[in-house]
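Listing S7. Sequence submitted for prediction.
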Amino acid sequence: MDQKKIGSFLKELRMEKGLTQEQLAEQFHVSNRTISRWETGNSMPDLDILIEMSNFYGIDFRELLDGERRSEKMDNDLKEVALKAVDYTNNETERYNRRIHAILFVGAVLWVTSILISHTSLVNNHVMNAISEFSEGAAFSMIIVGILATSQYGQRINAFKQRLLKKQSAKTH
């Protein structure tokens, strides 16, 4: 990270907005001297202020850390990488969901087996009773594991997709 480059980029952004160091200092609740130190590259804003600045100036956080605006080609490359990552995630999700569905299906079959055994005359047989109890316990465990696994994983995937959609809609507006 080149502090001097970031500092001059911060100054450039401030000037583009037509703000003085004092006005910017008021915006971020710091002193004029602090703004001066940032712009000369003698010090860097805290992470939370950097994030606020990227929002304030309407630029990507990475641009702020790089000390320059990204070119259109870089944006297209970034979109391409993001789309590949989403495709990969979707493929992995499909494989994961197939495994979970198989677990849930086996659990359902075991549960039905347990119910059939317990509701027939086979329940008096010790071996069949043990099979019924095992099937019931295994089915219950598989269904619980399937539910927990799909809910946690599904939430992460949906949150990731929402973030991508928000970024994409923000750039098109």
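Caption to Listing S7: primary sequence and predicted structure tokens for the chain studied. The chain has a mean pLDDT of 80. The chain has two domains: 3-66, 72-172.
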